[in-house]
Amino acid sequence: MVYFMNGGTRMLELKNVFFNVVDENGEERNIIDDLSINFEKGKLYVITGPNGGGKSSLAKVIMGISEASKGQILLDGEDITEKSITERAKMGIGYAFQQPPRIKGMTVEDLLKLAHGGDLPKEDCCQYLAAVGLCSKEYLTREVDNSLSGGEMKRIEIATLFARDLKVSIFDEPEAGIDLWSFGKLNESFQKMHEEKDQTIIIISHQERILELADQIIVLEDGKIKTSGSKDEILPEILNQVNGTVCEIQGKAVYNG
């Protein structure tokens, strides 16, 4: 089945995509199983579902970190299935890791300029940092190293995506390892990005506050889409889950794992 999201302008399209791995017993296992879906321009999608359902693998396949075993991926109508990570990045796909890399010797200002791909005025760097709730005077000259907290790194990485002219931004469990205060600022950053950037945003998350930002929620389980729809349709069902209790979403078991 192909999942169409409201019939708007397609930005990212997956056609019958498989991602297989060989397990420790030498047997091939489907992580992504014949997945077809269209993501629209200007929409924010949250992909959720049980752990091990294929969410992070899907994000990595889209970015090119992992190679699809079969199927086709199109960006703005162009086939990118065989494109490398670097080529996809140049074409307008950005990916924020669960654990952003730290680069000793590089300042936050240098990182923003590198992300932008050219000269970037200091006032623009300041605006990107302010957009994610960071004081530019404190952070521009700081090194991107272990002196930064997990929450600071996540927000700086989002600022680098602000600095780029992207078609698709992907965030893999951005809430992982950050405190409640940082998470609140992070959530505000996503809201601001969605309001100000005419791009497709895909977030892998279990968090209710992130789910509430979604135009569309996709529930992924066993490498397949079990259900998808607007947050008004899907979120009330998900919120029936309490501490990992199984609920039924359109007849399919979903776990908050």
UniProtKB/TrEMBL annotation:
Residues covered by the ABC transporter domain: 12-247
A molecular function (GO) term: ATP hydrolysis activity
SMART domains the UniProt entry points to: AAA (SM00382)
Keywords for this protein: ATP-binding, Nucleotide-binding, Transport
GO CC aspect terms: plasma membrane
SUPFAM superfamilies (UniProt xref): P-loop containing nucleoside triphosphate hydrolases
Superkingdom of origin organism: Bacteria
UniProt signal peptide: none
InterPro entries (UniProt xref): AAA+_ATPase, ABC_AA/LPS_Transport, ABC_transporter-like_ATP-bd, ABC_transporter-like_CS, P-loop_NTPase
Family matches, as PANTHER family: CONSERVED COMPONENT OF ABC TRANSPORTER FOR NATURAL AMINO ACIDS-RELATED
Full protein name: Putative FeS assembly ATPase SufC
Species: Peptacetobacter hiranonis (strain DSM 13275 / JCM 10541 / KCTC 15199 / TO-931) (Clostridium hiranonis)
Lineage: Bacteria, Bacillati, Bacillota, Clostridia, Peptostreptococcales
